[in-house]
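Box 3.1 A note on notation
Throughout this textbook, protein chains are presented in two layers. The first layer is the amino acid sequence; the second is a token string describing backbone geometry. Keep the layers aligned when reading.
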Amino acid sequence: MKLVIGGAHQGKWEYAKRKYGGIEPAEFHWVDGKSCSFEEVYSCGGIYHFELLMKRMMKAGEDTSHLASRIAEKNPDIVIVSTEIGYGLVPIDAFDREYREQTGRVCTQLAELSSRVDRVVCGIGVTLKGE
């Protein structure tokens, strides 16, 4: 499993496509966390907007506490691209605070289980874990 993280609009997906496969979504079977089914994360080559998948799952009442381990078990070769959402002002809305907290926890677990973690800033990837 590979994890690519970074702030909004920093070139994470473009970096992941160059590094891990496929310029077009169909070439590598990329799915968009904004619109894919919850089950696609277990069979796709890569997912971008992972944080939006988390938001949709939480709004649907899905338990995400073991999501990282389920992904690692069912789809160990996946590339996950997620925006870091834990910086800045703490949201006033209770759901938004819980979403931010849970997404951070799941991404921390994904980083632990991943063989490689890259952080992208201004389109430049820096390896935090792995080679």
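The helical segments are 12-20, 25-28, 50-59, 67-74, 94-113. The longest helix spans residues 94-113.
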